[in-house]
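Can't paste images in this forum, so I'm doing it all in text. The chain is below; anyone willing to post the predicted structure tokens underneath?
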Amino acid sequence: MQGGHRRKRGRGPVSERVGARELLRRVLDGEWTSWDAPIDPGGSEELIAARERSGCDEAVLTGAGALRGRRVAFVVSEFRFLAGSIGRATADRIVAAVERATAERLPLLAAPCSGGTRMQEGTAAFVEMARITAAVMAHRAAGLPYLVYLRHPTTGGVFASWGSLGHVTAAEPGALIGFLGPRVYEGLRGEPFPAGVQVAENLAAKGLLDVVGGVDQLAETASRVLDVLCARPPAEKITEPPSAVADDPVWDSIVRSRAPTRPGARDLLHHGATQVTPLSGTGRAEPGLVLALARFGAAPCVLVAQDRRSQRGGHPLGPAGLRVARRGMRLAAELALPLVTVVDTPGAVLSAEAEEGGLGGEIARCLADLVTLPAPTLCLLLGEGAGGAALALLPADRVLAARHAWLAPLPPEGASVIVHRVPDRAAELAAAQGVRSADLLRDGIVDAIVDERPDASAEPAEFCRRAARAIERGLSGLVPGTPAARQARRR
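Text version of the structure:
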């Protein structure tokens, strides 16, 4: 087994060591039902000693209970049983629990705390990780939420299989999390593993985890996530008021859309949404793109939103940001949740690194994923809509536009350079191109306009609430019908 992890240099204080039963007591509403069949330890003195030491007959407990009133299944490691290592009997128990959760259509909460494969059982135990992974992926393929809470420590094959497959992944503060245990690294390399790397907070900062929080925060976090993942938008179409179409000068709208005080995606979440859980978990923090679970009124969604302020503040949108967007699209497709995209971008980054990183290909893949997504989709054109970065998030079942939003193949100055060889005729060219919201509504590119009175910068909170209500109305009535029929209408 991979056990005996020592506290590493550079790691903050680890949360109290909480055993499996204590975790369940503090997270679930009350009594829970065990799904565990008794395991005979046989003649193994080590297994008998582990049972006596831990009070458990194996390294995991499984079962079902209520979490804030919602029935959930769970798989929770007990580290005191041979460092939470996974042997064949452990794997049998985990697979049986995951398959039962799938059959009973229950969300599944996994709380690993393990050194990895049980070394005493060798390769036969090692390959069980593939069987556990297969069961987890069948659960996800059934459209059921899988949440993971990584505890101290989670390493080896557990982290590299069922510990890294959550729709949402949280970790306890200070937890040691990594593929290779530091003791193994030091034993093989003759030097300690670099300090501060395999720490929950560092992994969250790098975009590998979604949430870091203690055991006593887990029930609130999981409940907030499940309130989105298990909900559905109103089935009946909510009547939309007629769009207020103003004959604003094109350049006036473009100038207003670029104002530093104009509310953006994060303001929309703050003022207009509830049950918000920001996500990352793609291996790189991307401030220019927001990925979150949220509810707009009664409508749950996965939100993929461009953050114009961050993009203009030194974090332009590149290939990595679009890969974050595609994680959101996959999440929406898998759980049949509506996807809401927010377009607000001065344009994708222009750099050699972006070209070599496959920017054009990522735009194409975003477009391909969106137009074929089986889940309902809605796009809000919130402000600037320049070039391929805007187009990457545009195709949807319903498209809304803020009054001063606009959409163009390039920033108007760039288009002027192409047509007139100088940037000075940008306003003239933008008017000719039909980029403003009123033109987009007339041409059938957007379905409705969210009014600004007279400018979102002058009424940020109220505008965001108005946009949120428009999103809720737009998502209503989208669920009925087959994915094939929805995609046909979208095209």
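The CA atoms of residues 260 and 309 lie 7 Å apart. Confidence is low (pLDDT under 50) at residues 1-10.
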